[in-house]
Amino acid sequence: MKKLMMLSFWGAILLLSVAPLPAQNSVDVIGGPQPSNTAGCAVNPQCIPAIWSTTSNAGTDISTAITANFVFDTNGGALPTDFPAATKGQICLADTRDLTGTTLFAQIAANCQTAQGVALLLIRDSAATAPSAIPVFVISGANGDFLRNTVKFNATTGVSYYPVRINVAVNVPPSNPTAQHNCPNGQAAAAYVGPGTPNYTPNESLCLPAGAGQAVEPSMTVDSQGNIYVESIRGVPGGLDLWRWYKTADGGPNADGTLPFKYEGQPDCGMFVTPFCSSSGFAPGGGDGDVAVNAPDPSNANIPNLAVVSLSAAEVTGSKATNRADTFSTPNPATAAVPFDDRMWLDGLNDPSHVYMEYHDFGTTSQIFVQRSSDGGETYSGALGVVIDAATEPSVGPPSGNIAGQIKVDNSSCSSHGNLYQIFVGPDNPVDNANNSAAYFNAAYVGVATGVSVTSPTLTFTDYKIFSCGAGSTCPSKAGLGNLFPGLAVDNFGYVYATWSDNTDVYYSFSNNLGKRWSPAIKVTQNSSQAGKSNVYPWIAADGNGHVAIAWYGADQAGNSNTVPAATTHWNVFVAESVNGHAISPVFVVSQATDHSNHTGQISTGGLLGTSDRSLADFFQIAMDPNHLVNIAYADNHAGPAVSYFTRQKKATAGISNKGKCAGTSHEAGGNGHVNGKHGGQGQFNFNYDDSDQTTGSASYTDSGSGVNFLATQVTAAIFDQVAHTVTLTGTGTDNGRSVAFTIVAADSSLAPPGLFTITLDDGYSNTGSLLDGSITVY
After folding, report:
1. Which string of b and e fits 175-189 if b means at least 16 CB within 10 Å?
2. Which among 44, 84, 126, 470 has the fewest CB atoms less than 10 Å away?
3. What is the sign, positive or negative, of the torsion defined by CA atoms of 419, 458, 314, 5?
């Protein structure tokens, strides 16, 4: 499993861009075809934006323009022999999409220099660090295709048909159409604000220093006061970037609904000079990151604590802010008790200071560790536990292992308050595990810790299976369930919700008894515009009583995200929302949140060992605010390097409930189907009962062979047998218009297949039988 667990971290390393604040250079084509993409050009209204790699050219950007032909290398420039003799005195052009293995960008630059090239243009949709003696610039895949396919080059010599000029950067203050604060001069990508969609505000890019190069894997949280925090990674050792919207200080929403975020810099130092960074000599993190909030602190002007973690090469750094992200504590570079770890997630308890952190062993055990902080995220020494229990370890331990999703705390006012839930996917059984293949990550699990005390140093988890594609299966998509990452949410009444993707469909399941039993999974993409297409990276949020939202990247084409056509596949962010998320048959409404395609090409779910596009990294997050609005932060590279964007729901969905019974105390039952009729033919039934919000019930039954046509008018009582998994409903109704009293007894199909249905009417009719079709569910 070590190989699989390494994907997230090492992939992040190759995404990085760090060091001094660089410049937004540009490339002109001299005397030939002109590019149509002009975003970010300050010298010529028609040019190609280029990001200087700040570690190239001895750490100094060019002071005079470079004019020469480019020489294109069709192999990506990985070998010293790739650049031909004609490279001497010319500009090297290499496309990282042509690489077939792991290659350091510095090696490509060195190979160009050996061939006596004067500069390197590197085609890549994310920034690059390339320590080298010659200047290196990154241009987007779209602009690289323009040079390759429109400007063109001689197939024999590789020399372009027209010269190009790399211009000296011109620092121009960035446009700021949404009134964002503290945005530095020189941006990694030009500011963008879209038109919005019927349900979501205009999509806005979050301002980012050009030195960052990129802002991917955005994490998000919203505190109980409605303040929004978005964090993203640059890659090790580039650190994190963070933005905040605090209405009192930053201003209210703009007229179009966009928000004037404040850029808060880098909570884990990054390249900013601080005593810690100066003494350590590096930025402690940027490989992965996450944020979490606590409840308002009465001892600190009722300001909620904000915890941040960042992944370095072998450890997790932690810090906190007690002033809404304006300043952070000096990062603790060793918050994890187990060294050499990967992919940590956070969630805060709704008190002033307790935060839970999950992380994966980066070594050989594939164990998932959970620690608790009692000081708001500076240290995590309050408790330690392991998620993979002894019974589950043979299925999800070595050799295949597992992929861990987020950890969630039950912050409800119910007796389940403080429960911990940790989702992960892995093989269904030890036989599937022996395949040592991510394609056999065919089951989803949850680790549950109940009765958690913040004073206890021990956290004890028991694992339950949420869903399985079936033993021996690689799931209908043949891609397994490790499509980065499974998601988890807990609503305000203690109901737990899970989501995951098989690379084609986004799945959903819920638990109304604190994670022990889960509903049959449904496909939220089914019967939607995304049915039959590629859908990956689901994330989930919940509040109210059954209010659930799931967001994901959805393509406009079918196929595996790793192999869909790179030039013609367009992606958008979609959201499925439900206000009855733990009903027997929850209803989801799917809408599009992006007002433009945020990515063109493939999306890798294989990390570093994958061969497709990883420019958006591995996930994005959503969060709900106190007004029940869905807030979304996602990665976008439609106009250059991948940076973080934000959009939010324009108005809350109707029907959200803020009252009802707690999970574990409510009951639900429902079903429909056929049984044998009493005198031949078939009897058809349909019933539903739910007391989780307000007591509701319905039932109908017809047996044409017996002349019965029953419709309930009132369900007066419901008795649930948790041992036999049956429900008994009594009440009144009509049979062919005549008043009758009824009793219905139904047995759960999944626990007692195929299910049993019995009906008795006080007009003398009764019938019982096993289901011929349909199903019955009893919770």
Report:
1. eeebebbebbebbbb
2. 470
3. negative
